[in-house]
Amino acid sequence: MIAYIILHYRDFEITRKCLKSLKTSDEKIYVVINGEDKLAEDILEKEFPFIEKISLKKNTGFAGGMNKGIKKALKDGADWVMILNNDVECCENFCKETKKIISKFKESKIVFSPLIYDKDGEKVWFCGGKYSRLTGRARHIKSPKKVYDFKKRKSDYLTGCAMCFPGKVADDAGLMDEEYFLYWEDVDWSLRLKRNGYSLFVMPDIKINHIGSASTTLESRSYLYYYFRNHLRFLFKNGSCFLIPIPLVFFTINLMRIFFLWFFFYGREGRKKILSVLEGIKDFAFRVEGEKVFN
């Protein structure tokens, strides 16, 4: 059995489109409602009665919400799990092709993601990830074109936007680190999976469109805070004690470059961005983890 887990937060219209795009009645689907949302619960009850909902009293972040869904699916007997952000739309035959891939690999220690397009389906948003231990930076492999020329591609990491894995992952490598709350938990988990013998692939036979972030706006206060706070957490958690100064130097140089542009070319808005990043760095230094409540 394969279980699909969708993490809902805030805008149910986005979640509705994701659920409709799955187009399957054969597989088990779970929706994790991340924080109290009575409206979402009512809509699920009326429009998607076959879907199992998991309601959490508070927002536990990406890793916390997904982990709750994964544990429930495994408890119910799922052999494989596919996690999906609610801000994605699955392309034609997504579930059918996913099942074919799983049938082929069966008990293999493999984790895979679909080929991920942008919201218009015209450009490739993710067809693999590159991670540098030297700089500590992770970047998506993108393409301005719609075409692809690979049957499957190994990847240094996979994005939590869409990831499929066998249930035994939980015993072999554990689940995602919930202290990240938001951002970098997928890269962290990917490296842990690899250390435990798993191979990571992007499979172009299954495709989704990534509509965009449903929880934060790019370069919003919360995005900048979590991204830079958690990047530091990631570096110290995954870096060698002898090599950690090197990625920290790259981190600092990149930060100075960004701060210069924001300060001199973006005026008051740029200075607000700088303060958001500094707040994240400060909270990392004082070991503040989990959710940050913004006034």
Question: In words, what does this structure look like?
Answer:
With 295 residues, the protein is of the alpha/beta class. The chain folds into 2 domains: 2-210, Spore Coat Polysaccharide Biosynthesis Protein SpsA, Chain A; 221-285. Helices cover 41% and strands 22% of the residues. The strands form 3 sheets. Strands 3-2-1-4-11 form a 5-stranded mixed sheet, sandwiched between helices. Strands 5, 6, 7, 10 and 12 form a 5-stranded mixed sheet that branches. Strands 8-9 form a two-stranded antiparallel sheet. Strand 2, helix 2 (38-47) and strand 3 form a beta-alpha-beta unit. The longest helix is centred in the last third of the chain and has 21 residues, at 245-265.
Topology of this structure?
Layout: E1 2-8, H1 12-22, E2 28-34, H2 38-47, E3 52-56, H3 61-75, E4 80-85, E5 88-90, H4 94-105, E6 110-117, E7 124-126, E8 129-131, E9 138-140, E10 153-154, E11 162-166, H5 169-173, H6 185-195, E12 199-210, H7 221-238, H8 245-265, H9 267-285
Parallel strand pairs: 1-2, 1-4, 2-3, 6-12
Antiparallel strand pairs: 4-11, 5-12, 6-7, 8-9, 10-12
